Structure formats: C-alpha cells, structure tokens
Amino acid sequence: MVNIDQPVIADSQIILREILQNRERIPLDTDLDKPSIMHDTTSVQMKTKEHENIVPRNELNGEHSTRSDRGSEMGSDEESSINDQSRIDETDGDDSKSDAEDARSTGMNSGDETKEAKRARVENILSSMSHPQYMDSESMYAINEVRRQKRKQTVPQQHDQAAKVRKLDGPHFEDDLWNLRQLSAVQNYFRQYDDSIPKHLNGFNGMDNIHRLHQTYFANLSARHAEEFQKEQQQLQNRAAALGAFERKVSSANDHINIAEHVRETMNANKGLSQGVADLDDRELNELIANLKSKIEEAVSVTVDKELSRFFQKRNNNKTKEAKENHEKNNKLETKVEEKRASEPEKKATTDHSLSSILQMPDRVNNNNSNNTSFRAPERHSAFELPKLGVGLPEIPRTPFPHHPPLGYPPLSFYLPTTLHPPSMYSCTGIPPEQTEALSLVVNTPKKKRTKVTDTRLSPRAARALLHENGTLGSVFEHERALSTSFGQMNPPCLPTSVAIPNPSLNHSDILTYYKEQCNSPADNDRPTPSSSTSPSETGYGFMKSDYFNDSDVFDSHGKQTTDTLTPMHLRKAKLMFFYVRYPSSAILKVYFPDVQFNKNNTAQLVKWFSNFREFYYIQMEKYARQAIAEGCKHAEELVVTTDSELYRVLNLHYNRNNQIDVPENFRLTVQATLREFYLAIMSNKDAEPSWKKPIYKVIARMDDAIPEYFKSPNWMDQLSDA
DNA sequence: CTATAGCCTG
DNA sequence: CAGGCTATAG
C-alpha cells in the first residue's frame, strides 16, 4: 500500500484483510476454530460464559485471574502454565464443541464454503469489535502471552517454537478482493444504523477496532499449539459472549434487530456490490476502511457505553463489599498487632513508630464503601480520610478543577503536617535498623524527582498545541474528544498490561498509526517512515525531522491538534495514570494520549516513563517490605497500607505531587498487595534468587485498573498544567 | 538487525 | 527522568 511506514503496518493491513476474509495463512487446525466462533456467537449459551470472562484483567498476559485471585502466588516461572491451565479449565467444556464445529466446517469446503466463510468472517469481525472490554484485551493478552513466553527472560521458555507461526505472507490480490467484499458488506450493514446512532458518539478511536481485528487475527494464529489453542478457545468464547451481548444490546436499541442475521442477509444481498469494490485502488480501499471503521465505531460506542456503565456499576458494588470486608479484617489485625506490641516492650519503641507509620493500622480505615476506583465519585475522599486531623487543618490552597469533577479535591492527607505521620526512619534517614540482607535496591531511594522536566525538546508550539491555546480548533477538538472517549472506554476494564512482556501492543498499535495516517491526508504528516529508516533513532535525519522539524503541530483526521512531543504535562498525566495502571501497553497509552502523534521515539519515551514509574514504585515496595520485616512483622496480613501510610504518601508525592487527582482506592490495595508480595518473597528468601521480582511484577501487573475516560480529555489535560 | 525489559547511572 | 548497557527474542 501507499504510505506503509513499516513492515508491521504493511502486515497489519494484510492482516486486516485476512481477518475480514477469514482466510488461510494459518495452519488449518487453527483456522478451523473460526467457524466455531461463528456458531458460538449466535448462541446464547454465552451468557454464562460472559460473566466469567468479565474479569477485567483476566486477559492480561493471558494469565490473569480475577481480582479475587490476586493473591495467588505465581512465584515460579510456571505462570504461563498456570494461565494455560486456568484457561483450560474454563474452556474445557467447549473444546469438544469446537472440535465438532471444526469437523463440520471442514466438511463443507467447497459449496457452502463461500457462504459460510463469509458469515464466519463477518461474525468474527463483529465479535472482535463487539467485545471491546473483554474480548479485545483477551486477544491482546493472548498475544502478549505468546510473545512473552517467547521472550520471558529468567525463565527459559520452551514454547519458543510456537513463535514463527504468525509470519505473514505478502498480500494476495484475491485476498484483497475478498476483503473488499467483506468490508463493503459490513459497512453496508452498519449503514442501517446511521440514523439510530448519535452522531456525536462518533469517536476517533476507530483505529482501535482495526487494532482489535488485528489482534484477533494474531490470536488465532497463535493457537497453533495446544496450550495456546486452549487459550484461544477461551477467547473465542469471550468473543461469542461479546457478540451475544453486543447483539442483545443492539437489538434492544434498534428494534430488536439481530445483527448477525442482518449481516448475513446483507452479505447475500450485496454480492453485486462486492463486484464494484473489487477494483478499488489502494487509496479508495483506505477510504473504505476509514469509513467502515467510522461506522463500526458509531455502532460500538453506544453499546460500549451502556456495557461499561453497567459493568462498572456492578463492579463498584462488589468493591464496596470488598472494602467493607477488608475493613473488618484490618480492624482485627490491628487488634492483633497491638496485643503483640504490648508483649514486646523492647521492640515497641521502634515498632510503634516506623512500623505503624508505614503500616498504619487503619484506625477507622477508609471503608467508606470506597466507591471503587475507576469511576469514583469526585467527592470520594474516603481513601484519604484523615482520622485524627480533620479539623485543625488549615485550608490548603489547591487548584480547583472547575470543569472536571472527576478531579475532585486533593486528599487532605497530603496537607497533613508530617508530625502527624511520623516518617519512618527509612524514608527519612535511610538507615535501615537491622537489615542484614542485600538491600541493593532498597538503599538507594531515588527521591529527587522533579528534576528535569523530561522534555528537553518542548517547543512553545507544542505546548500551545497541548494546551489548545488556539481556541477555535480547541473547542471543537475538545468536544469531540470528550465524546469520543465513550469508545475508548472499552479498553479500561481490561487494560492490557505487560509485565516483562514484550509489549506487543507497541507493534500492533502501529497499525493504529497506519490507519490514522490513512485517514488523514497523507500529505500532512510526512513523518519519516521509521521502519524504513535504519535505526530507532532514525539517525540524524529521522530524528531531526520528527523531533524538531516535525515537532510542529499536526492535525489528525478530525482536525484536532496533535503533537509528537511529549511535554511536562504529558508526564504529569502519565504519572497520574500510574495510579490506575502500572503496566499500560503502548496501545493503551496511545489511546489515552490522543493529542500525541506517536512515533517510535515518543512511544519509547512514554513507555520508558512508565518503566521509571515502576522502578520507583517497586523500590519503595521493597524498601518498606524490608523495613517491616526488620521491625518484626510476622505475617503478611499485618501489612496494611492506608492512605496515611508512609509508603502510600511517598508514592502520592511522587506521582500526584500536586494532588491533581483523587487517588483511586484500588491503588492503595495494589500498593498493599505489592508490599505483601515483597514481604512474602523476602521472608522466604526468594530475594536470593536471580530475578525473584519477576513473579511479583506479574502479580502486580494483573492489578491494573481501568483508566477513567476523562484522562483522554484534552480539557482535563489543560488543568494539569495550571495545577 | 531491531526492539523491549530490566538494571544501573548520572 | 534519560541514557546506557545487557540479555533476549524474532
């Protein structure tokens, strides 16, 4: 195609096509499962499955389990196996079915093949896009999983051979034709909804759909191996469930129209149309793709919105319950600890102070049914509820966030005099009382942040772009942004994360870039093509052009301003995002930084940021975990992190210095969990092993949360600047 | 050869 | 936080 920057991109398009046509290139056995999707999708049996799969982070790395599983130890290198296992467990029952389906589909090769294949393809597409939150990530994770297994260091993986399966061939002309037919059919189908779908819901995240298709495709490819195949079964189910849900949704919203049926009918009715489509040229094809994408977005947005709100509502309720239980538990522990202290006078001196400050037995913990994290109410200071200070505190001036309630007010705890929270000796002096172990990491606590603002190349223009100082475009931009977030929301619930996992999304997401460019007038953004360029730095030319010359604002397909320069504002935002996700995939990052024109460099930079965030985070964790141990903590349960905990406060200071957001409760839980993980690992002398932290990383990676959509709002971004 | 994760440094 | 370096992976 034209404008193909990178091989990946080129492949992406091919992939899209293949997805759409459900074509070969895949080992037969793998391919066979597609028909199964088709059958499953139409069935309703998915309802049950659906909520099994609703597990947000489950997909992460393909090994993720529900939050409730969080505690499970994955200490060894068997995580992969474990995941696989879990998947197997869940999918077992359907395997047989799939097999049957496979057999069936194999049988109908020639005659019905066309028809069936088409149907399968369309359904596949629909399912791919209809399961935004769960399935998509699922696929993505599956991919991650595969790749990770291949690359996971520390643990010599045996699945290596599995790798190469997904190499793609070059484009096939016939494939294109097929693809076009499918596209037109689908597009045509969606046209029916043009009127019923609010235009304002049109999002700019359309590339995500493509992305997902891409991922789905890869997921299928990866199914070649047994274990992988099983995972895939899981995905298929998810998709089926997704489609089921999607259909139900759309049905209710559109006079009970059955999507699948419609698509099928449309398919049949459009055979003629496909003819004309056949001789489109690349440009036209791209246009078509763009349109299709747009349509799909519209349709999906509506559904996604509904699903999301429903999901989060449900989720919030659960969490509330969880929090309550937690509270009770904590109180119990508190008592326990106190008793313990009483019996250990000599130790008391140290314990009472540092330990308590770190672990802060939650007096009246913030069990204010902390409305969960993600969509926490602005007023929810619960997580920061300050026990003993409340009153006397002077009103601390803080930057109000007028237009964005979500920002809420900074937790009071941040303003509390340190005296109220005796800093642990570690954090202050850095002299561990009795640490015998190698505290390599612990010792050096990189504290002085805020050093350089990261972006040395920040240009006024870029800044302006970021702030949308030029009103006109800004408002429009903003408006669309806000609206478009609805679509983006689909990612949150299951933010693909990647621990020590090669970020597949980074590669895959290139497809986003690709399509984005396709949509835009290719002439505008003439970014040097990274792929073709030899080095990531794109050597002199590439670098210069993209980082300096091309630093100028650009406009995306929606006429919104864009920059390829990461500014301090972006950095702040990234930090805040860290409260929700520790392992965001680059794809997610891209979604949440819509005003950034991503390229190899800034993508790497952003990724690096999170890497740095994590580094700091884990260093703190290890430090405090060791401190707790040094102070005589005997059980992981004794490690309770409250919003008043030293650890917690340190982290807040680091990532939320200006208290720009109300830190999600989940973050606290994550911190606590991390602390415990470290504690347990250290207690069992795991820290002697080479990469003993890897398992911990994995556990934590599963705790990523959904990022509030308002993060995508440029308007919100603005506020960060003046905060 | 290119890319990422992770660790270390400045 | 950015750079640099290494190991690993495709």
Question: How would you characterize this protein structure?
Answer:
This protein has 723 residues and is mostly helical. Helices cover 58% and strands 1% of the residues. Among the domains are: 7-65 and 110-312, no CATH class; 460-611, no CATH class. The protein has 28 helices and 2 strands. A two-stranded antiparallel ribbon has the order 1-2. It starts with 6 loop residues before the first helix and ends with a helix. The chain binds a DNA duplex (10 and 10 nucleotides) through residues 147, 150-153, 160, 163-164, 167, 441, 444, 446, 449-454, 456, 498-503, 506-507, 534-536, 571, 600, 604-605, 607-609, 611-612, 615-616, 691, 693-694.
Number of beta strands: 2
Arrangement of strands in the largest sheet: 1-2
Specify the number of helices: 28
N- and C-termini, Cα separation: 45 Å
Mean pLDDT level: 48
Structural class: mainly alpha
Features:
723 residues, mainly alpha, 28 helices, 1% strand, disordered N terminus, DNA-binding
